[in-house]
Specification:
By secondary structure, the protein is mainly β. The protein is built from one helix and 29 strands. Belongs to the arrestin family.
């Protein structure tokens, strides 16, 4: 392995998750089998959002590929850990060495996110600089969470929300009847780990079979970018992406039959908060949708908008129980908000984003860059004590 045995970055939080407004802390570890000549060891901090997509267009003469870009830089700075800033040579001793570092994170930083056409990403990269030879690099990413406390959102988030509708079925130009549905969710504000409680009635008033019913939590992401050319940037364009983050399905409903969804639950998985506050080129929103798929006619789709936060709603359904206090992570005294009493909610664990890991190689990486190349942000998961599920997670009758 040569002189350099180990070279990596470790954070003081086990999940490498930090609140916007906290101080990032960690150590760069260097293990040398023998002394090494170098100019210095430097640690770089990068925080940015980036958007890119392309669109094909056709003219009378040729096909053209138009690229849309967007970027926001939140920080790009470095710290000297060892050696001299003037570039003069020093000899680093052999053995294992740990270099501590800190970086205050601004309160305005947006939450980490990895999407199909863009991301909000935070990285640390340590470099052993050797101007007369190739540099040694190691990198790793960390998660930043911008707090979205549901208790400071409109009070309507606590109330159930209902949707209803009907669709007419026809076959061979003859009307075969109507299919109607009503569905309700227990509230509009959730955090990952909570359960969305769904109640629904679907009445098949036609003489044909309903193919399927489905309830889903759906994520919508808007990416904003422009075309850059010699004349400057074009007006902003939007690229939209949507996907189901969790869903449940049921089978056919025979003619004349009513199907009932009685307090069916969907657990909110590890996903980023709504809006992505602090980022102006990526926006995230969520809806709960109820689908009735039919064979002869227009499918019925009912929608309830929901907000996904990072601090759960204060539970007011069982005031006789003693509260436990939820703190996502330690914050400086000046930044720490008033603790919210959350009835019977376990302190959060952390899970990786359900979108999976992505390759985070950058243009400046080389074949000598080591460290974390596959990565996904992690989000807090709040789950209730099992003894309270039946008391709290119910939806009023439809």
């Amino acid at each position: 392995m040569g002189k350099l045995q180990e070279f990596y970055i470790v954070f003081d939080h086990p999940y490498a998750v930090y609140q916007a407004g906290e101080v990032l802390r960690g150590n760069v570890i260097v293990d040398l089998a023998e002394p090494m000549r170098m100019t210095n060891i430097r640690l770089w901090f990068f925080g940015r959002s980036k958007v890119h997509w392309s669109k094909k267009s056709h003219s009378s003469h040729r096909k053209q590929l138009t690229h849309y870009h967007g970027e926001e830089i939140y920080f790009d700075q470095s710290q000297l850990l060892f050696g001299r800033a003037d570039g003069s040579e020093v000899l680093h001793p052999e053995g294992v060495h740990s270099y501590p570092f800190t970086l205050p994170l601004a309160e305005s930083l947006p939450s980490s996110f990895e999407g199909k056409y863009g991301y909000v990403r935070y990285l640390c990269k340590a470099t052993i600089e050797k101007p007369w030879k190739f540099d040694h690099d190691t990198k790793t990413a960390f998660t930043v969470l911008s707090q979205l406390d549901l208790n400071y959102e409109p009070s309507e988030l606590r109330t159930p929300m209902q949707g209803e509708g009907s669709t007419e079925l026809s076959c061979c130009c003859c009307v075969t009847g109507n299919v109607s549905a009503t569905f309700r969710i227990n509230k509009r504000g959730f955090v990952p780990g909570e359960r969305i409680i769904v109640s629904a009635h679907v009445h098949n008033g036609s003489n044909t079979t309903v193919s399927q019913t489905k309830v889903a939590l759906k994520q919508y992401v808007e990416f904003s970018g422009s075309v850059e050319n010699h004349a400057g940037s074009s007006p902003q364009k939007l690229k939209c992406e949507s996907e189901f983050v969790t869903s449940l399905e049921r089978g056919q409903i025979a003619a004349g039959v009513t199907e009932i969804w009685d307090d069916v639950s969907l657990e909110v998985p590890a996903i980023p908060p709504s809006r992505l506050v602090g980022c102006d080129i990526i926006n995230i929103s969520y809806v709960v949708k109820f689908y009735v798929y039919v064979s002869y006619g227009e499918d019925l789709k009912l929608t309830c908008d929901v907000i996904i936060g990072t601090v759960p709603l204060n539970d007011v359904t069982s005031p006789s129980t003693s509260p436990c206090h939820v703190v996502i992570s330690e914050q400086p005294a000046a930044r720490r908000p008033t603790t919210i009493a959350v009835q019977n909610t376990l302190p959060p664990s952390y899970e990786e984003y359900i979108g999976g890991r992505v390759h985070i190689a950058e243009d400046y990486d080389t074949e000598y860059t080591r460290g974390q190349m596959q990565w996904a942000p992690s989000y807090p998961m709040f789950r209730r004590h099992a003894s309270m599920e039946a008391l709290v997670d119910t939806c009023p009758p439809v």
